[in-house]
Structures are given as C-alpha cells and as structure tokens.
Write a structure and sequence with these properties.
- This protein has about 150 residues and is of the alpha+beta class.
- The protein folds into two domains: about 1-55, no CATH class; about 95-150, no CATH class.
- Helix content is about 20%, strand content about 15%.
- Strands 1-2 form a two-stranded antiparallel ribbon. The protein has a two-stranded antiparallel ribbon with strand order 3-4. A two-stranded antiparallel sheet has the order 5-6.
- Strand 5 and strand 6 form a beta hairpin.
- The longest helix is centred in the middle third of the chain and has 29 residues, at about 60-90.
- It is rod-shaped, with a radius of gyration of 35 Å.
- The model is unreliable at about 20-30 (pLDDT under 50).
Length: about 150
C-alpha cells in the first residue's frame, strides 16, 4: 500500500515511519490505506479526516486551519506594526542634507558622519557661499555661482 502523502510502506517517510497503525490482512501486516472519494488518493489513517470521511488534503482539520490562520494574522500584524514604527523612525532622519560618505583623506567609509572613523579627518557637509548661499563643492576655491572666494 502507498499513502499519497507519506509514500509507500517501509520507506523512510512512509505512514509506518510516522506512526500509522498497522492492520493484519490475510496473515500479513500492512498499513491502513483509505481511499478519498473526492480526490481518489489512498492515504494512511494519519492523513485521513474521519469526521469528514475524506483525506486531510481535501478536508483539513478546521481547528488546525483556524490556529494557522490566527498565527498568520499575528505575523501580518507584527510586520505591519514594525513597518509603521520604521516609517516613524525614518521621519527623524535628515534626507535633504548631502553627506560625504567617503573620507577624502584615507578613502574609508564615513557613514555620513562629521568625522572619519578611521583617521579622524573632519568630513563636513558642503560649505555654502557667504554671498549667495550656493553650495560650494568640496575642494573648490571659489563659488561656482558668484565667484566669491571660498
């Protein structure tokens, strides 16, 4: 006999391996295989829903399905709450100020800090022109907009 879920009797994943009850038939022992009227598969007693008279694939245990749905709902709610909390934290992050991510002195990552964590070099945000308030690129000696010395 072969269980449609666990495979043929005697294999590692067979109904015998998962504890299905053997029955005697004609002097030899075999495992109970029940035929589902809906899908016509033969399954062991562990895969049979006796209350419904169908295999568990066609008629799952309702309480098990309810508990699974409840667990899925909890996971969904937790993920949603975590996403909302992350969005609130992101509101406090300054996303408009341009940051230098690599130290011009030692080429290490600065992670947007004001100082390089490797060499301590001051890595500041781009300076602004005192005359016209335009951003002055790093290393520039004059404002690209009005020509004022940096």
């Amino acid at each position: 006999m072969t269980c449609a879920v666990y495979g043929p009797c005697g294999t590692k994943n067979s109904c015998r391996a998962v504890g299905a009850r053997p029955i005697a038939e004609g002097g030899r022992r075999r495992h109970l295989a029940l035929g589902c009227a809906r899908c016509t598969e033969h399954v062991c007693e562990k895969c049979w829903n006796a209350d419904r008279g169908l295999c568990r694939q066609c008629a799952p245990d309702l309480q098990t399905e309810v508990e699974q749905a409840r667990a899925e709902g909890e996971v969904y709610a937790a993920r949603t709450a975590a996403a909302e909390a992350g969005a609130k934290q992101a509101e406090r992050i300054d996303v408009t100020t341009q940051r230098q991510l690599v130290c011009p002195q030692c080429n290490s990552e600065t992670h947007g800090g004001k100082f390089c964590p490797e060499c301590g070099h001051k890595v500041s945000a781009p300076a602004t022109c005192g005359s016209c308030s335009t951003e002055i690129p790093v290393g520039a000696k004059f404002c690209p907009e009005c020509g004022t010395p940096a």
